[in-house]
Amino acid sequence: MLDQFRPAIVLTVLLSALTGLGYPLAITAVAQAAFPVQANGSRIEIDGQLIGSDLIGQNFSQPGYFWPRPSATVPDPYNAAGSSGSNYGPTDARLIERVSGAVASLGAAAPVPADAVTTSASGLDPHITPQNAALQVARIAAARGVAPALVDAILADVTEQPLLGIFGQPRVNVLRLNLALDQAAPTGN
Hints:
Order of helices and strands: HHEEHEHHEH
Strand order of the largest sheet: 1-2
Shape: elongated
Number of domains: 2
Structural class: mainly alpha
Number of helices: 6
Number of strands: 4
Strand content: 5-15%
Low-confidence stretches: none
Mean pLDDT: 87
Distance between the termini: 76 Å
Helix content: 40-55%
Largest sheet: 2 strands, antiparallel
């Protein structure tokens, strides 16, 4: 009977070491060598201080900053530990009420981009559409006391184009945009 248990125990220990320790260490080493920024969370640091991540949105609510799309994480917006969507269907009265209220609060004369009033599936999306950002330019320029053309130029510089020109949609990382805005027009924050 011991002759039957010994190979099973040896294989279990060997495969556990291989798949539980060896493989993760090898993949971590390859990731650190080939993609160090992504492997470490796509962190944004300024002067050695962690500011945020390219992958997780942050809540900006001051008038002098671009605002991200709404977050579905509760109780705190953009809480990565609580990533989830609202799971409201398109005919759910709570969703219709929330979106209608958000559209009304924007008071925009032009059509409101969907990402200005709806959450992403994860509730953590760091990007908005260029149309959503353009809708905010006048508010930001007024709050900072700068010309809207300056804010438009910063927006154009930070807008990310589709991969290879065909994969995805143009998008704007709100944290990167606000950091560029602080650098170009720091007064009036």
